[in-house]
């Protein structure tokens, strides 16, 4: 079972993984649940995955986030539209950006969303994103390019209009 | 909107999030519950089998057990079975059958490369089995790979951990036996392509186990993993101590400034594909300003336990000139023997008569010019005036004060 190395992994990487999960799900509570589930799973299997915990965690996060998305698509929920995290007038600039980013990510298919988040938030090279998504390098590149184009289209005006100087 | 803008937007959109302080406790508690559940389920299934109930057998993914593998021991059926048994016992709970890809004699005894599928992760686990004291033992650490594939990975086998067994995974892997620090303080390596082996595994006997580097073609990162390197040689990375010296201003460096002004971010001064001891003296990053208003950084970088000292000078918005001042032990440092343990002192005279950089972790410092009065140093690091000739170090725990001539 897991020991000090697992604790170190959780302490050092949970912030980054939570942020990835947040952008994959678009919801803070879902992201926290998702991360805890994945880490519990890793706790049980730690000895087997100790050589590559990051790769395992990313893959599990993406798989679970995608499954969650599929599940929600089959059984649409009535909550958490983009208004959920929409800022009030007096919120900070980051909150404005957050709302715009979440809106934009929601509009992307899960694989494109995951590719963009892992490439641009986690700064992963293409082949590591491919390992996390279970697809080829070429698919990652095309998913990233498409996702990025779409994101720029949606985010560009939103950030210029609402964000002001960055 | 550029790619950098997108990166910045994603970072800012999620930068407010931090995990709950009790996350680790909750994960451990949840993990333990899962272990108990799994054991209950497994116990129930075994009990059902024992009483002859019809088990629900599910076809599992995985490569078939083959009678032979690549390598000069690949036809030794008894050895292959022992390899699989050792693997199963060390890595239990995987689905499918373990598949021995290669088994061969090495100067460290028989070694085997093995994979097994995992229904949990949708990936295969890849590892090595080595010989220790005449017995087979699974090397600590496994690699997750795409199902049915072998990834580039290596181990250091043998009592001295000096036999490199490298699986190329059908990829173009480049090997470097050792490195040198050149006159500019950069890491110099010569890589040679690992010969294309039909069997996919190459053995290098008697390697310098903290000098080698393994790189995938095209310099792709990360480096090829040596699965058991940390088990023997890993440790805590040296602590990095940053000090902003008087006059440097309190503004933090921007990301683009850090890339230019922090050699720890520049691959030429690091060794991204190499394997080294992690431990070593503290890494200093002192940022100040010269009398004529230029930015000044004195930085030490540690590789294999040895520190190199650099001085960076230039206009804040420019790319600095980098001076390599030497490695610890060559006049830029001193080792003080005190009762509580050795104290390493940085004492490097800077170019252009910019002064003398001094630093000693957890110590108090004073300096003087010839026989003048001792003057205090604020903190445990500073750039002293060029005229300074002597440093006084008060080690931690009240040990005796040590006077030290400056270079």
Automatic annotation (TrEMBL), chain A:
InterPro entries: RNA_pol_sigma-70-like, RNA_pol_sigma-70_dom, RNA_pol_sigma-E_actinobac, RNA_pol_sigma70_r2, RNA_pol_sigma70_r4_t2, RNA_pol_sigma_r2, RNA_pol_sigma_r3/r4-like, WH-like_DNA-bd_sf. Keywords: DNA-binding, Sigma factor, Transcription, Transcription regulation. It comes from the Bacteria. Gene3D superfamilies: 1.10.1740.10, Winged helix-like DNA-binding domain superfamily/Winged helix DNA-binding domain. Pfam families: Sigma70_r2 (PF04542), Sigma70_r4_2 (PF08281). The keyword Ligase does not apply. Residues 99-151 form the RNA polymerase sigma factor 70 region 4 type domain. Belongs to the sigma-70 factor family. ECF subfamily. This is SigE family RNA polymerase sigma factor. It comes from Paractinoplanes ovalisporus.
Automatic annotation (TrEMBL), chain B:
Keywords: Membrane, Transmembrane, Transmembrane helix. InterPro entries: TAT_signal. The chain crosses the membrane at residues 41-60. The keyword Transmembrane applies. It comes from the Bacteria. The keyword Membrane applies. This is Uncharacterized protein.
């Amino acid at each position: 079972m897991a020991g000090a190395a697992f604790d170190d992994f959780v302490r050092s990487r949970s912030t980054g993984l939570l942020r990835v999960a947040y952008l994959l799900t678009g919801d803070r509570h879902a992201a926290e649940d998702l991360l805890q589930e994945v880490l519990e799973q890793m706790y049980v299997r730690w000895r087997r995955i100790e050589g590559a915990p990051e790769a395992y965690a990313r893959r599990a996060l993406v798989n679970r986030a995608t499954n969650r998305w599929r599940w929600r698509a089959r059984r649409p929920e009535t909550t958490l539209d983009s208004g959920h995290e929409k800022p009030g007038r007096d919120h900070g600039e980051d909150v404005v950006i957050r709302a715009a980013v979440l809106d934009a990510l929601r509009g992307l298919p899960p694989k494109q969303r995951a590719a963009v988040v892992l490439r641009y938030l986690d700064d992963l090279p293409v082949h590591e994103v491919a390992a996390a998504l279970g697809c080829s390098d070429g698919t990652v590149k095309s998913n990233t390019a498409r996702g990025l184009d779409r994101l720029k289209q949606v985010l560009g005006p939103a950030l210029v209009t609402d964000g002001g100087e960055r | 909107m550029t790619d950098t803008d997108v990166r910045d937007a994603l970072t800012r959109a999620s930068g407010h999030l931090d995990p709950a302080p009790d996350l680790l406790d909750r994960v451990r508690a949840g993990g333990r519950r899962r272990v108990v559940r799994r054991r209950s389920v497994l116990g129930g299934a075994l009990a059902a089998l024992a009483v002859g109930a019809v088990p629900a057998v599910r076809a599992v993914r995985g490569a078939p057990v083959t009678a032979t593998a690549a390598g000069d021991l690949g036809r030794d059926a008894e050895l292959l079975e022992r390899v699989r048994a050792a693997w199963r016992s060390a890595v239990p709970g995987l689905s499918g059958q373990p598949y021995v890809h290669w088994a061969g004699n090495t100067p460290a005894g028989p070694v085997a490369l093995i994979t097994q599928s995992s229904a949990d992760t949708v990936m295969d686990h890849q590892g090595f089995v080595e010989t220790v004291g005449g017995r087979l033992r699974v090397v600590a650490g496994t690699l997750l790979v795409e199902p049915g594939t072998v990834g580039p990975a290596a181990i250091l086998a043998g009592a001295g951990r000096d036999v490199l067994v490298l699986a190329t995974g059908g990829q173009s892997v480049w090997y470097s036996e050792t490195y040198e620090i050149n006159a500019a303080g950069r890491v110099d390596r010569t890589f040679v392509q690992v010969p294309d082996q039909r069997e996919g595994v190459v053995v290098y006997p008697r390697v310098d186990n903290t000098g080698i580097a393994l790189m995938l073609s095209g310099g792709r990162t990360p480096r090829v993993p040596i699965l058991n390197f940390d088990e023997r040689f890993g440790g805590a990375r040296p602590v990095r101590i940053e000090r902003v010296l008087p006059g440097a201003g309190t503004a933090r460096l921007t990301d683009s400034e850090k890339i230019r002004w922090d050699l720890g971010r520049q691959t030429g001064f690091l060794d991204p594909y190499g394997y080294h001891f992690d431990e070593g003296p503290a890494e200093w990053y002192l940022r100040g300003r010269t009398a004529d208003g230029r930015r000044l950084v004195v930085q030490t970088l540690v590789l294999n336990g040895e520190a190199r000292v650099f001085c960076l000078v230039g206009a804040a918005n420019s790319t600095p000139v980098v001076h390599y001042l030497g490695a610890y032990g060559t006049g830029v440092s001193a080792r003080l023997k005190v009762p509580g343990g050795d104290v390493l002192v940085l004492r490097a005279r800077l170019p252009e008569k910019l002064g003398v950089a001094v630093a000693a972790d957890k110590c108090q410092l004073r300096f003087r010019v010839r026989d003048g009065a001792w003057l205090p140093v604020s903190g445990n690091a500073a750039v002293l005036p060029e005229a300074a000739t002597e440093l006084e170090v008060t080690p931690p725990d009240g040990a005796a004060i040590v006077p030290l001539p400056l270079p």
